[in-house]
C-alpha cells in the first residue's frame, strides 16, 4: 500500500505532528510506503533550491502513485498546499483520510453554545472548514479526530 501524508511542513508544530502521524501509520501498517513531503530533501530542504515546477511535479507524481491520502486539516485554516493536494487527489477518486484534531469540535451538543451562536453570529464557539474541501474528503473517505483514528482509517483502506 502507498500513502501520502499532507500537512504543512514549515513550523515546528507541523513537523512534529507529521513525525508522530507518520510513525504511528508506519508502525500500524507494516510495509506501507508512506510519502511525507518533509522527508523529501530534494524539494523541501529549504537551505537548497527547488522551483515551483519541481515541487509540483514531485508531489503530483507521489499523489498519483498513492492509494490513500492522509490530510491534516488543523490550523487557522486548512493549509493551502494541503487543500491543493486534496483537490488533486480527489480527482483520482481514491480514499482521503482527513485528520482534524481541533478541540472546538467538542461540545456540539451544548445548547448554551448553540443559543449564543444563534443570538450573535460572532459568538461562534465552533470551528469552520471550507465545505468544498470537506466534501471532497467525504466523497471517498472520512474525517478523523485523532492520530489513533487516522491510523485505523488507513488500516481500513489497506489493500
From TrEMBL:
Chain ranges passing through the membrane: none
Highest taxon of source: Bacteria
InterPro entries registered for this protein in UniProt: 2'-dNMP_N-hydrolase, Nucleoside_deoxyribTrfase
UniProt xrefs under Pfam families: Nuc_deoxyrib_tr
SUPFAM superfamilies: N-(deoxy)ribosyltransferase-like
Name the UniProt record assigns to this protein: Nucleoside 2-deoxyribosyltransferase
Amino acid at each position: 500500500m502507498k500513502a501520502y501524508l499532507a500537512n504543512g511542513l514549515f513550523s515546528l508544530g507541523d513537523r512534529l505532528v507529521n513525525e508522530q502521524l507518520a510513525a504511528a501509520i508506519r508502525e500500524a501498517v507494516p510495509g506501507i510506503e508512506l510519502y511525507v513531503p518533509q522527508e523529501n530533501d530534494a524539494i523541501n530542504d529549504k537551505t537548497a533550491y527547488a522551483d515551483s515546477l519541481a515541487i509540483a511535479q514531485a508531489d503530483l507524481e507521489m499523489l498519483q502513485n498513492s492509494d490513500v491520502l492522509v490530510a491534516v486539516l488543523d490550523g487557522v485554516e486548512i493549509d493551502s498546499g494541503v487543500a491543493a493536494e486534496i483537490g488533486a487527489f480527489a480527482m483520482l477518486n481514491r480514499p482521503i483520510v482527513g485528520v482534524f484534531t481541533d478541540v472546538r469540535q467538542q461540545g456540539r451538543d451544548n445548547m448554551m453554545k448553540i443559543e449564543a451562536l444563534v443570538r450573535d453570529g460572532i459568538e461562534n464557539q465552533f470551528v469552520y472548514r471550507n465545505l468544498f474541501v470537506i466534501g471532497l474528503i467525504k466523497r471517498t473517505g472520512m474525517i478523523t479526530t485523532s492520530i489513533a483514528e487516522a491510523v485505523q482509517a488507513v488500516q481500513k483502506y489497506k489493500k
